[in-house]
Structures are given as C-alpha cells and as structure tokens.
Design brief:
single chain; mainly beta; Lipocalin; 1 helix; globular
Length: 120
C-alpha cells in the first residue's frame, strides 16, 4: 500500500496541465480524474479542486484519502494528507508536468496514468 501511494503521489504530481491564460498549473485536473494503475494492477482515482483540496480512493482496498495541495517555490506539487498516510512523508512533493485530458503516460515505476474527463 505504501509503495502504491508513493508511486501515486509521484505520478499524480506529474499529471497536471498548464494553463497559459492564468498560469494555473492544475487547471486541467479540476473536474476530472487522474486514474493510476500500478505495475501490480492496483488502481487509484484522484480528484483535484481549485480550492486547493484533493480527494481520492483505491477502489480495490476500499481506501479513501484527502488533503490539501500547493505548488512550492521549486514548482513542485506538494500534497498534505489529512489524516497522514502511514509510511508517507507529509507533505509529499513531486515534479509538476503538463498533461491534457485524455493523455495517458507511463510513470517511472511502470505505472500507467490517465487524465480522464469527469469525476469517475
């Protein structure tokens, strides 16, 4: 579980899309779902909100998570889980890259990430 959440955090951080109009690096994630499928087949869904909150779930485990997010002075996405997730740093920060709704990519740990339209 801890490894899956670590991978999810890194990949979720890499899922954001840039909006040139207002410099909101998270704009494409609002109202949409980041679906991560780990190399082991475990899936998580994460939802980001414009009010700097996020929530998500790991359906196969019945596990839900939530917290707040911010972009730090290094341009990284930092998520603070509430309550903290055992075995995770809090906040958990990682690189921020642009992806559009419909994009699918492979993370460093072999997980597949897709930015899906709507809340799924």
């Amino acid at each position: 579980m801890r490894l899956f959440l670590f991978g999810a955090a890194a990949l979720l951080a890499a899922s954001s899309a840039a909006s040139a109009a207002d410099d909101d690096m998270m704009a494409n994630t609002y109202g949409n779902t980041l679906v991560l499928v780990g190399a082991n087949g475990m899936e998580s869904h994460t939802y980001y909100n414009a009010d700097h909150t996020f929530s998500g779930k790991v359906p196969s485990m019945g596990f839900e998570y939530k917290g707040t997010w911010a972009i730090d002075d290094k341009g990284q996405l930092c998520r603070t889980f509430d309550p903290p997730v055992p075995g995770r740093t809090n906040p958990d920060c990682g690189p921020l890259e642009s992806h559009a709704v419909g994009d699918k990519w492979t993370g460093a740990d072999g997980a597949t990430v897709t930015l899906v339209q709507g809340v799924n």
